[in-house]
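hey so u asked for the seq, here:
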Amino acid sequence: MVLPGHIAGGYLAAEAILLLAHPALPASQLTALLIIGTLAGEAPDIDLIWFYLEHRFNKTVNVEGHRDYVTHAPLVWVIISLIIAVIGMAAHSVFTEYIGWMILAGSMSHFILDSIEYGVTWLWPLTNKNMLFG
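ran it, structure tokens below
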């Protein structure tokens, strides 16, 4: 999946969470949450920066190799999201809690979309095997 698809997936996932949960937040915070969820849809591809820096002079490298980095492991994003959500709950901050849920929704949309075409290491660290849904 390319950038526009992941951005759209993140937006739709964030919008779905907000429509289902109806958090009592001001419009400005709801907009911020939509932006966070939208960006989280592309966030696992942050590894492209390191991938290109590492392989910038090697023209034979397959760009699909960027999915071997830890940022393409769903468990990493689940842990990050849940830590943020729990911090929000502990601090009684609905906004902070929902930041965690937006990151979770957006990043999982990324992995679901990648699973259709490329495969994702859903069971990492137990295995490095890519699983396809398509």
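The chain is about 60% helix and 0% strand. The two ends are 13 Å apart (CA to CA).
lmk if thats what u needed
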